[in-house]
Amino acid sequence: MEVVIVSDAKAGGELIAEAMAELLRHKPDALLGVATGSTPLPIYQALAAKVDSGAVDASRARVAQLDEYVGLPAEHPESYRSVLRREVLKPLGLDVDAFIGPDGTAEDVRAACEAYDKALAEAGGVDLQLLGIGTDGHIGFNEPCSSLASRTRIKTLTEQTRVDNARFFEGDIEQVPHHVITQGIGTILEARHLVLLATGEGKADAVAATVEGPVAAVCPASALQLHPHATVVVDEAAASKLK
Ligand code: F6R
């Protein structure tokens, strides 16, 4: 695992956007695995700026979703499908055909999960998977004690994660769904390159457990230690508890 400490979130976004641009220069139809939440926004902004300036052509890029709320209509502004359309597809000039994701509104959620793992494999696998990290060490929405071999499935969000995400729902935790579909840790580990960005002091404990703790389900992100090509980019605040 490679750990890169940057000065701030903007520098982390720029660094990772350049890695994505470099991938697209070599593989124009790369499958980019994207996360939601606040952390990756500087990455998406920096990548969109590179596209706008002509530094990279993303017109053939493909995008795969990491997770999705269960039961939120796809057109809800906070469904991850909507968020990714707004923050990634539109700024990169991609249309919905470039995008694959799990169906959080499916009647048969289990079948939707299986179908998504199949779709990822049929798309040739994720070339570069972006990850954020929860304050409890979750990646995707694999909360602590998720199996390190798990596949895409339905998970129940912890109270802490619902509290953390209430800011996207007018601060009202009652509006935050209880369930999500998330790529499993085993699914995530199949991506060819994993890139985790963590910024801010609130992530410092989770980063320390990820990088320096044992590989353990209690900190799902520690599974990155098992991956042959994992990069953890942290700002100084998130790195503050590393030894
Ligand atoms: C969301 C996801 C989550 C977030 C994590 C951190 O797609 O994968 O694991 O990355 O909850 O969220 P932020 O970045 O908002 O702190």
From TrEMBL:
Domain Glucosamine/galactosamine-6-phosphate isomerase per the UniProt entry, residue ranges: 10-225
Entry annotated with the keyword Hydrolase: yes
Gene3D superfamilies referenced in this protein's UniProt entry, alphabetically: 3.40.50.1360
GO BP: any one term: glucosamine catabolic process
Keywords, in A-Z order: Allosteric enzyme, Carbohydrate metabolism, Hydrolase
Residues carrying the site annotation Part of the allosteric site: S146, R153, K155, T156
Activity control note: Allosterically activated by N-acetylglucosamine 6-phosphate (GlcNAc6P).
GO CC, one annotated term: cytoplasm
Catalysed reactions, semicolon-separated: alpha-D-glucosamine 6-phosphate + H2O = beta-D-fructose 6-phosphate + NH4(+)
This enzyme's EC code(s): 3.5.99.6
Molecular function GO terms recorded: glucosamine-6-phosphate deaminase activity; identical protein binding
Pathway recorded for this protein: Amino-sugar metabolism; N-acetylneuraminate degradation; D-fructose 6-phosphate from N-acetylneuraminate: step 5/5
Enzyme active site: D67, D136, H138, E143
Reported function: Catalyzes the reversible isomerization-deamination of glucosamine 6-phosphate (GlcN6P) to form fructose 6-phosphate (Fru6P) and ammonium ion.
Similarity comment text for this entry: Belongs to the glucosamine/galactosamine-6-phosphate isomerase family. NagB subfamily.
HAMAP family recorded: GlcN6P_deamin (MF_01241)
Protein name listed in UniProt: Glucosamine-6-phosphate deaminase
Name of the coding gene: nagB
